[in-house]
Design brief:
Layout lengths: L2 E2 L5 E2 L5 E3 L3 E2 L6 E2 L4 E2 L3 E2 L5 E6 L2 E6 L3 E3 L1
Antiparallel strand pairs: 1-2, 3-6, 3-10, 4-5, 7-8, 8-9
Length: 69
């Protein structure tokens, strides 16, 4: 399984990525701002999603909104 960021770069476990777009968090009024760094990502079973910690909270993010740092 290959997970690619918005630029087509391959992502792997432990990579750092940045958000390319402001994202609303479901079930919350919080917004993740563009340029937010997500370190030490983990791949999921879905090739369109990755897990990462943002502000001490684990979140599942769409790879289409990420750029490899």
């Amino acid at each position: 399984m290959e997970v690619k960021d918005s630029n087509g770069n391959l992502l792997k476990e432990g990579d750092s990525v940045t958000l390319i777009k402001d994202l609303k968090v479901r079930g919350s009024s919080a917004v993740l701002k563009r340029g937010t760094m997500v370190k030490n990502i983990r791949l999921t079973d879905n090739e369109e999603e990755v897990e990462g910690k943002v502000d001490r909270t684990v979140m599942v993010l769409k790879a289409a909104f990420l750029k490899k740092a």
